[in-house]
Amino acid sequence: MRLYHDAKRLGAWDPRSLDLRRDVDDWARFTVAERDVLLRLTVLFQAAEESMTRDLLPLVMAVVREERLEEQLFLTTFLADEAKHTEFFRRVLDEVCRQSGDLQRYQTPSFRRLFAERLPDAMQRLLADPSPAGQAEALVTYSLVGEGVLGDAGYHVFSTALARGDSMPGFREGLRHAQADEDRHMAYGLFLLSRLVAQDREVWSAVSRRMEELLPLTLGIVSEFFEPYDPMPFGLSLDDTVQDAIARFASRWAALEEAKERGRALAGTPGTEQVVRDILGWVGDQLQPVPIEVRREGTGPVYTFHVGSGRASEGALLITQEVVAHHTAADVIAALRAHRVPERLRAAGRRRLTCISAGGKIIVQPPE
User: Fold this and answer.
1) Domain ranges, ordered by start, for the chain
2) What is the CATH number of domain 2-267?
3) What SS3 class is residue 365?
4) How far apart are CA 119 and CA 139, in angstroms?
5) Contact 278, 271 (CB under 8 A)
6) What is the pLDDT at residue 3?
7) How far apart are CA 245 and CA 309, in angstroms?
8) Is the CB of residue 255 less than 8 Å from the CB of residue 198?
9) Is the peptide bond before 130 cis (omega within 30 degrees of 0)?
10) Is 287 exposed, middle or buried (0-12, 13-18, 19+ CB in 10 A)?
11) 82, 52 Cβ separation under 8 angstroms
12) What's the rounded mean pLDDT across residues 125-146?
C-alpha cells in the first residue's frame, strides 16, 4: 500500500507534457557517433518497455486469483507506468531523434532472445502455472534482470552520456521520472520475491537456476551494446557499466538471501496450524466445560477463538497471524497466562481480547 500511495503521489507525470524543443537543438550538436549511442540505447529502452507493458498482465492475473487486493492496486499503477515509459521513449525517437522507421537493427541477438523469447515465455507460463516457483521465475526475468541489471546499466549509460552541461533537459526530466517509477517496481519485485523465498524452500532453487540461465545472456546484451564503438563516445566504459549494474544487483540478491534465511528459521519451528491447535487445546482446558472453537475467515490475518455457545455469554480471543507465525505455542501460552486471559474470558460475557506481536513481544489488548 505504501508503494501504491507513492505511485499516486510521485508517478503522476505525462510524457506529452515534457518540453523537448531544446532537446531537438541539443541533439544536432552531438557528433554522429554520440547520436548513434543515444539512439541505440533509446531504441532498446523503447522496445524493452513495450515488451514489459505487454507481458505484465499474467502477473496481475496471478495476484487477482490469490485475492491479494493491495498488490493488485499497486500493479494497476505499475502497468500504467510501463505504458508511459513506452510512450516517452517513442516520443523521443519521433521528435528528437527523428527516427520513426524500422530500428530493429539495433536489437542484438541477446536482446531479442531475452525480450522476445525468455521474458514473454516466463510471464505467459503464469497463466498455466501460477505456483510460487512459477511466479519467482517470472519475477527474476522481469524484475531482477529486465528492470534490474539491464535497467541499471542503461540508466548508467544515459546518466554518463548526458552529464555534461545542461543538454537535453526534457529528455533528462523524463528519464528521472521513469527511473523513479522503476525504483518502485523493483521494490515490489523484491517484496514479492522475498515473500515467496521465505514461504517456500523450493523457490530459492528456482530463483538461483533462473539467474544462472539469464545472467550470461544479460551481460551479453551489455557487451553487444558496446561492440560497434571504438573508441566509445562520452568516455563510457564497458567495465564501469557492468560493475555499476552488478553492484546494485548484489545488494538486491543479498536481500533475497536474508529472506531465505528467515524462511529457514521459521521452517525450523512448528507450523502455524500446529501452534494454533496447541493454543486451542490449552485455552480449552482452562475454560472447561465451556465450549471453544477457532475460526479464520479465508486467508485473513486473524485467528478468532470463540468462547461459549449462547449469544449472551460469548467471548472471543483474537490472535493475529503474525503472533503464531513468529512465536512458539509455549511462548504464546505463557503470555496468555501472564495476562490472565482464561480468567478474564470466563469472568465477563462477550469480552473480546486481542493478542498481537509488537517489537518481538506478545501483547494482549486491552490491558487488564
Assistant:
1) 2-267, 272-365
2) 1.10.620.20
3) strand
4) 10
5) no
6) 93
7) 62
8) no
9) no
10) buried
11) yes
12) 94
